[in-house]
Amino acid sequence: MFVIDEAKYQVVVEEERPRRQQRGTAEILRCYPVPVHFHNTSHLNSFYYYTAEMSSIQKPLAFCIGDNRTYGGYRNAPLLPHKSYTVYYQAVSTANGETKIDCVRVATKGAATRRPEPEQEKQSDHTVKIAGVTAGVLLFIIIFLGVILLIKKRTLAKKRKETSSRQEMTVMVNSMDKSFAEQGTSYQADTHTLTTRTLSSPSSFTLKSNSITTSLPNTYYQGKNYDTTTYYQGKNYDTTTYYQGKNYDTTTYYQGKNYDTTTYYQGKNYDTTTYYQGKNYDANMLLPGCTKGVLKVCLGVFSLQTLNMVTPTLRVEDCSIALLPRNHEKNRCMDVLPPDRCLPFLITIDGESSNYINAALMDSYKQPSAFIVTQHPLPNTVKDFWRLVLDYHCTAIVMLNDVDPAQLCTQYWPEIGVHSHGPLQLEFVSADLEEDVISRIFRIYNAARPQDGFRMVQQFQFLGWPMYRDTAVNKRSFLKLLHQVEKWQEEYGGGEGRTVVHCLNGGGRSGAFCAISIVCEMLRQQRSADVFHAVKTLRNNKPNMVDLLEQYKFCYEVALEYLNST
User: Fold this and answer.
1) Is 333 a known active-site residue?
2) Annotated catalytic, 503?
């Protein structure tokens, strides 16, 4: 005996799209457990949406698809005439804590427009291809000729400059020889001085005491005094003791605020009164409204330009594993490669000879290697991506980019059932949509080693960062994403599970998420934060972390938003 706790009836509209189906196999009717509103179909890249939901039906009802009304919170949007649709009737019942879903196809609608004839379509495609190839060839020829002309122009300019210099030197030497001949060979060096005529060169040459000396301008930058004993415009710098145990005054660091440097910057004390030409910086200049004495941040002192200066440049030998020929096809961009010292090598044995994946281990504020930053999986690296999740005990995945097949950013997770990647089994458990975050829970395990058990992994797909924007649309929604990830990690992994963070190339967006996570943890622990140091630490492992000025500013703005919300 069982008791039905709740029953719902839903009308689902699915847009028909071309699908590949193996020959000889029947179509399997799938139900739609995840509710999707009509206005969210484009954001979620969904081919279906709920058009109505009813709690109970006492008698048969006549229902019109596309009447633009709302049923049970779902809009019954009008159907487009040029598209084909299939309508399903779905029943969801909950009995004894178990939910069952059954659905049946009740209607279909064909497209109103007629597709062009195959022959016309082929001819049009052929014409477009020919035009594209022709335009490409012409563009290449124009660019090639332009490069040749530019090289020749620079070569001729260099030759003219060399010829002019030689002519000026010849005139100068001839004038000197003529002066010597007029004076004779027995002249007194201390009384006879010969000055050449003024030339086009900015330097003047003077013959005196049987020697040629060059009179250079007293200044290097047009009127400004420049002394090599000082580093920045007349201010004294002691380079022999700079960053080598020199004592700095921490009482004036951060505008007179006390700052504990024994646990920060590895015990080194810094003095900002002389670091940037003796200028005092006010943290409130960049973050208006910051409460004094509460948030202490390196703001005006360390700019993005300074950050770029101290970011190490990767050499070819630093990325030797990523540059191996067998790993080229596993890299989305060859100019964004992880260094060898930060690579997470794959462990799971599944018949693959390669253990490389384009990813890098990053430290959080309190946990080493808490983040694994990577690129959106390519079609040929989806298996490696899930191997990484299982091998390194990852319990959370943060997705900061959109699904875009045009950029080889395809969906790498199943929406229903179990998907196999060799011995790795990935099972879809549930999904939920909350504002700008879609959270999906998966169960992953290695079928070849059942004694290892399974791992629960939650993916957080952030919808609030469109592809065309440098930063997220809303700071509060970004903080909410961060809170959801941290809450899941604490509840399921006890705060010890790793988080995989990925965007298109594993660079700016992923770096911003990691930096903001570190800064928020700093604020929770000591009510002070250093965004510059957080980003610099990430860049030491991967130089393209937070690579835009807007993303760098966004880190400060979210830090202030977090401070004001606590």
Assistant:
1) no
2) yes
